[in-house]
Amino acid sequence: MGEREIIYLGAVRCFKGEGSGMVGTHPLFKLVKFSPKGYKYVMPDMLEEAKIRISIKNAIGEALTEKEETAQGIMEFRRKKLEEEMEKFVTYCKGNGISKEFYERYFRIINLGRRGMQVPVKEDTLSLIPSFLYCLQKTPWVIEIEDVITLFFPFIQNGKQPDGEAIKLTEAYKFAQYMLKKEECLGVIAHVRSTVDIYKTLFPEKIIADKIHYIPMCCEEVPQKEICCTYQKSFQGKIRLFFSSSWAGPNFIVRGGIDILVAFQKLCRKYNNLELVLKCIVPDGLPEKCQEILKNYRDKIHIIEEKLSDSDMAELMSHMDIFLIPSARIHVISILRAMAVGLPVVASDGWGIEEYVQDGVNGSIVEGRWGKASWIDGTGMLQENYPIMEQVDEIFAECLADKIEELILDEEYRFKVTKNAMKDIQTRFSIKNWNNEVGKVFEECYKTLEGKGTGN
After folding, report:
1. For the segment 242-257, what is each residue's pLDDT rounded down to a tens digit?
2. How far is 325 from 333, CA to CA, in rounded Å?
3. Is the pLDDT of residue 456 over 60?
4. pTM
5. Contact 222, 425 (CB under 8 A)
6. To pair with 385 at 20 to 30 A between CA atoms, which of 37, 55, 200, 249?
7. Short-list 206, 50, 20, CA closest to 29
8. Mean model confidence pLDDT for the chain
9. Are 197 and 159 in contact (CB under 8 A)?
C-alpha cells in the first residue's frame, strides 16, 4: 500500500479569515512539511488547480479527460454533501437554542473556504484541521488544539471565557458539542496535557471524551549543528537578552514584555554589557515607566519590527544569549525554537509552560503568573486575565531579573539547562516522536473508517 493522503485544511481561505489570526500559516503547522511514515500531507491549493482546469474546459466547451470527469463528479458530490451538512446543522441549531445569527456567522466564515472543501479528493480521505472547527463536511477529520477555547472560536475567545458551568450554556458550546459528536470527527490532538483534562471535564460524554489524544509538540526543524552551539559560549563582552512576539501589539503585553523592560532596567544598573533585542511590534500606550525605559536605554534596546524568514530567525537567535518569555500562558513554538538553538529559556509559571520547561532542569521558571494571569478554576476550566499583564508587576520583574542574573553568573548552571533542553528537542520534543504518535492517531482513524466499510 502506498502513502495515504492527509489533506491539510489549514491551507484553505477560512483559516485566514474572520479573526483567525492566519492560524493556518502559524509556525506550529509547518509540521505538515514532515509526514508520518505511510502518510503524505496534501495542500488543498495543489488540488485546486484541477478544479480550475475543469471550470475552464466546461466554459469553453472542451471535453474533459476521464480523470477530470471523475474529479468533477467527486466535487459535485462533495458540494451536495456540504449543503446537506449545512441543512442538518441548521435543523440542530433550531432545535437546541442556537440562534440564526450564530449559524449564519459560522456559514460566512466557512464559506470563505468552501472551494477548499470541494477539492477533488476521495470521500474517505482524512483531513487535518488546525485549532478551529472551521469545517462542516461529510468527510473524516482530525483537529489539533492547544487549549479548548479554540474549539469555541471566534464566538468565545481567550481571556474572555466564562467558567466551565457557564460555558456549557453558550451557543458556542452546543456548536462544539455537535461537531465533536459527528462521526466525521475521528480525533482531537492536544499538545498540552492540561487540555486533555479540561476537555474531558467539559465533554464527559464517552463519544466525545474518547476522541482526544495527548502528543507533546515538537520543534518543526532542528537547526544545523553549527548553529546549535550557543550553550557552549562563555559570556564575554555583550550579553544579549532576546524576546520575540508576533506582530500584533497586544502579544508584546501577554508575553510579558512590560516586565521584561523593568527587569532589564534593574539589571542594567549592575551590568554595563547588557543589551535587549525585541523582535516584535512594541505597542503604544505602555505604562509611563516602560516608555521611560525605552527612551533612556535606546542605545541598548534594539527593536526588529520586520518579519523574518526561518533561516534569518535562526541566524539572529544564534547571536543571542538568553531567551525571555515570561508570558501569561504557553507559547510552545517560541519556547521550543529557543531550546533547539541552545538558548537558555527564562519563562513564567503560566498555564501549560511547565509541561515543557522545568525549572533548573531545562530552563528557568519565574513564579507569579499562575493564579493571576492564568489558572484552572473550580469548574475545571482554563481562565486567563490578560489585562493584569498591562501593568508593571514589580515583584515579578524583580524575580525575573534574579533568574536572568543566575544565568549570567553561573556558567555551569547555564550550560546544564541548555544542554538538557537541546536533548529534549532531540527526544521528547522531536519531529520523529511527534510523527510516530500522530501516525498512530491516523492509523486508528483509518481502522475506524475501514470498520465502517469506507476506508481506502
Report:
1. 999 875 557 899 999 9
2. 11
3. no
4. 0.90
5. yes
6. 200
7. 20
8. 88
9. no
